[in-house]
Amino acid sequence: MRIPSRIIGGALIAALLTQMTACGTIIYPDRRGQIEGKIDPVVAVMDAIGILFWVLPGLIAFGVDFATGAIYYPGGKTAQIDPAKLKPAVDAQGNVDKLKLQAILESELGQRLPLDDPRLIQHRGSVEQLAAFGLVPAA
C-alpha cells in the first residue's frame, strides 16, 4: 500500500510544481520579456485549469505568465532593406526576378523567404514610387 500512495503523491507534487512555475513561461520561453500584446488563449486556458484544480498555484501561474510576458502572442517582426540593394532584382522593363530578389533578401535578412508561396500577396507600386527609386515603370 505504501508504493501506490508514493506514486500518487509524487504525481501530485509534480503537477503542483508545474502549475507554480507557470505554463506559458515553460512552454514558450522565447516570449519572455514582452510588455503587452494579444493574450494567447492556450496559455490562458492552461493557467485557468490550474486555478480550477489548485487555486493558489493557478493564480501564481497567471501572475508569473503576466509578469514575464509569456502569456502574450509574440510580436510581429519587420525588416528594412535599402532600395538600392534591391535594384539588381529589377530588369530594365520593371519586372522583378524572383530568384534574384530571394537571393538578395536571404543575404540581407539571413532568412529564406518563400516567394513562390501561393499565399503570398503581391502589391503593385505606383509610377511615383518606382520613379523615387530610380526605376523605369513597365507598361
Automatic annotation (TrEMBL):
Keywords attached to this entry: Membrane, Transmembrane, Transmembrane helix
Superkingdom per UniProt: Bacteria
The UniProt record lists the keyword Membrane: yes
Transmembrane helix is among the record's keywords: yes
Regions crossing the membrane: 7-28, 48-73
Entry protein name: Polyribonucleotide nucleotidyltransferase
Protein source organism: Pseudomonas boreofloridensis
